[in-house]
Amino acid sequence: MNELSLTTKILIFILFLLLLVIGWYLLNVAGSIISIFLVALVISFLLAPSVDTLERIGVPRLLGTTVMFVLFFSLVSAVFYTVTPIIYEEAVRVQHRISVGALRNAIQQVEASVNEQLRILGAVEWKLAPYVENIVRVALSNILGVASGVVYSVIYIFMVVFATFFLLKDGRRIKKSLISAVPNRFFEMTLSIIHKIEWSLGAYLRGILLDAFVIGLLSTFAMWLIGVPNFMLVGLAAGMFNLVPYLGPPTGALLAVIISVVSLGTWEKTIPIILAFIALRLIDDFLVQPMTISKSVRMHPLVVIFAILAGGQFFGIFGMLFAVPAVGVFNVILSEFYHGIQRYRPI
Amino acid sequence: MSNPILWRNLFRQKKAESLLNVLRNVPIFEDLSRLELKSIERILHRRSYRRGEYIFREGETGLGMYIVEEGAVAITVGEPGHEKEISLLRNGEFFGEMALLREDPRSANAVARVDTIVLGFFQPDLLQLLETNPRLGVSVVMRLARIIAERLQHLLHENKQLQERVDELERDR
Question: Which of A1, A20, A265, B110 could disulfide-pair with A102, CB 3.0 to 4.6 Å?
């Protein structure tokens, strides 16, 4: 393998910084349009293998795309119309319980025990309930706000649907047209990089989403077994939080504990919930992830933590959810680009 | 008579036909049906090179093969300025087919001798073809394997002749 010269490395670094600045500018100027394209790209990556399979058995691309497209969006709509109202009702119920004071009762038990200890030590009285209540209320009102926001984003969804269809049907033709514009000198290198990015990205996205889905299902089942009320809400949240490594699973467990305490007014389910989440973590690390996510696209823990913090800082809870997949995608693109340049040495 | 769309369509059809004829004469695609050739044509990349422009250089990682649609391509070895031409390929001839199977460094340079149009057939497209149309993909791979096997047989034959010549020389000494 050829070694890159220092000048080339500096040039690549400057190019990388320039791309970041341009990307940041575009996100600010045309964020929603870019996000439509990105969401459509992710869905088309997920559906492409099934359309290819249909093509393999002789179904024309247009028909295969239409069939998979209708199936996927029917499934999503069905889930949306059946599960969303249930989740929404569960969230409303939990929010109501906070206001009727079940959470206050449970926290007051902790408060009383801590204050008992503090009195022995001669310290001042400790008031925990108002703080915790406030945090939980703000978090839940955010969830409700987001849910209603999604319902009213019909135009956005329509645009995503439209873009997904054409990316699935004409993706190869679009790619070929874009590649035809690349100068002769960089043509083979570009083709190779695009192919590798496509392959790794598809595998990565399908892997993390499948992992989140499996963990969501297992969490729902575990919470149902333990007897946590609103187990569907907890399972859904656990699945989504699973997209955030390290911080996600404990957050899911914390949410489950809060919901069980709020609903039942006691801490008795806390230990089984924590044990269930530890077991789920082990199952995920040793069984599900090795089967769903390729080793080559896993990231260093430090990068992951930094990505989560940066995502949270810039885009809030959704930033934290999507920071790691986004960095994963970026990581794949960058490493393929770097290795591609090393192999072809175009300068 | 003077309908420009009709003339344009006729011209395009003629060009498509000549492209299919070029493909029909390439050993990897010979005996394929017209429909299959059209599927192949859809995944090929058409590139234009000016006289003297390199298509690829020795040592670069290869990703696939090229077919000369129009023009002439010289296959050379050696550093720029001290290159030795080992063959000159014309319309319908192909080169770089080993890279369809392995991403190895190119063993020679390919340079356009005149303004040239080539058709590129690359590994990712072959893999895609095997995914979406395995019957056609396998028949292309089989033809490719046959060409490589013939070349290997030829090399073995040459090797045997050389060995016999070496034995003869040793006996005479």
Answer: A265
| Most B-contacting residue of A188, A190, A197 (CB-CB within 10 A), to test interface | A188
Mean pLDDT, residues B40-64 taken together:
90
Of A56, A176, A194, the CB nearest to B131: A56
B160: containing domain: 4-172
> What is the rounded distance in angstroms from the CA atom of residue A199 to the CA atom of residue A332?
10
- Asked if A234 and A219 count as a contact pair (C-beta separation under 8 A), the reply is yes
Residue A306 touches partner B, C-beta closer than 8 Å:
no
Report CA Rg, chain B. Answer: 20
> What DSSP assignment string belongs to A202-271?
HHHHHHHHHHHHHHHHHHHHHHHHHT-TTHHHHHHHHHHHTTSTTTHHHHHHHHHHHHHHHHHSSSTTHH
Predicted confidence band at A2 (pLDDT cuts at 50, 70, 90)?
Answer: very low
Contact at CB, A188 and B56, closer than 8 angstroms: yes
Tell whether A55 is within 8 A of chain B (Cβ).
yes
Number of domains in chain B: 1
Residue A343 forms contact with B (CB below 8 Å): yes
**A57 vs A114: CA distance, rounded Å:** 68
Give the CATH number, domain containing residue B79. Answer: 2.60.120.10
Number of inter-chain CB pairs under 8 A, A vs B: 45
Report yes or no for ipTM above 0.90.
no
